Amino acid sequence: MRKLENMLEHRLNKDQSVPYPDFDSMWERIEHDTTASVHARMSSGSQNRGRNWSKIAAVASVSVLLAAAPVYAAVHYNWDSMLREKGGVQAALAQNLGQKLDQSVTKDGVTLKLHTAIVDENRTIILFTLDVGQRQDSETWRVNEMTLKGTEGKSSSGSYNYLNWDEKNQIYNGYFESEWTPKQGTVNVQLVTDTIQAYSVQSLDLPLDIHSTETQSFPIGQEGMRSIEVKPFTQGQEKMLISSAIIFDQPEAKEWAYPNIVGYKNGTLINSLNGSTFGQPGAKGEYTTQQYFKAEDVSSGKLTYKLQYMKKEQDVEGPLAFDLQLSK
């Protein structure tokens, strides 16, 4: 079950490597400019140094506070596991280099809340949480088509979002990332998401004969899937290939069903090997998979097989929109 959830999360929340500026250097420049300003004022009026020192110190303190005020980071949430491959973003959050948003929308018992925006020359990142209330262990949630829209209504390009379940706080932590950045210092935009959806992990018994070389057909009749054809192949002494093709009555269900075959040996899950492929289109529009298993895992013992897939459980219809003022 967890394997299918991980596969769904990977496909729905595709990540990629993104370059980020040196946030440490940015912070150092802020500190340098503040210090230089204080020294300049001190040297220009040495005879009034004693009288003006308290004013200068107060002004410097206020300047630092003003610089920090609009970039308060979301310290109440642990983003580390979600951002483990984004060191630049973590460094920015650690130094409060983020813009506080603090906006939320609730619909059908589900709350989407924006916390912090980080905008630089390359990217715009927005950290958010998704509170779905009482979540079932088999559920996986998805935020669909989250985009930034300018005042002229044009959507941003190169956008995606990622969700990570926080077991301790019973909430989803997420981030939205886009190649869009403001052309000037501050701009008004909308962050819009089309729908929020919930899926659950389901399974169906497959009376599969792994030792037969014939194509085996089984009816499904679930989640828009009509039937499945399965054919095992022996790959030398070490591997077994299970090739399958699924016919969908509802082609749109291909976007979320992600069917795959799982095996159990004496009640223990058998993991497929690296190199397995899922969702390749067949000649007649079938959803095809090629799954590799260790031959020793499927050659003896009490073996059972299931078709595992995702079922759509809930739709929170949008659009859900946030009016934002973002600044570099």
Describe it:
With 328 residues, the chain is of the alpha+beta class. It is 19% helix and 45% strand. The protein has four helices and 16 strands. It has helices spanning 2-12, 23-44, 49-68, 87-94; strands at 99-107, 110-119, 124-131, 139-144, 147-149, 160-166, 171-178, 186-206, 216-222, 225-235, 239-248, 260-265, 268-270, 277-281, 287-294, 303-327. Strands 4, 5, 8, 12, 13 and 16 form a six-stranded antiparallel beta sheet that branches. Strand 14 and strand 15 (287-294) form a beta hairpin. Helix 2 runs antiparallel to helix 3 (49-68). The radius of gyration is 27 Å and the shape is elongated.
Q: Secondary-structure map with pairings?
A:
Elements: H1 2-12, H2 23-44, H3 49-68, H4 87-94, E1 99-107, E2 110-119, E3 124-131, E4 139-144, E5 147-149, E6 160-166, E7 171-178, E8 186-206, E9 216-222, E10 225-235, E11 239-248, E12 260-265, E13 268-270, E14 277-281, E15 287-294, E16 303-327
Antiparallel strand pairs: 1-2, 2-3, 3-7, 4-8, 5-8, 6-7, 8-16, 9-10, 10-11, 11-15, 12-13, 12-16, 14-15
Main sheet: strands, sense, barrel: 6 strands, antiparallel
Helix percent reads 10-25%
Which range does the strand content fall in?
35-45%
Number of helices: 4
The radius of gyration is 27 Å
The N- and C-terminal alpha carbons lie at a distance of 42 Å
Q: List segments where confidence is low: pLDDT < 50 over at least 5 consecutive residues.
A: 12-44, 51-75
Principal-axis shape: elongated
Strands, count: 16
Topology order in helix (H) and strand (E) letters: HHHHEEEEEEEEEEEEEEEE
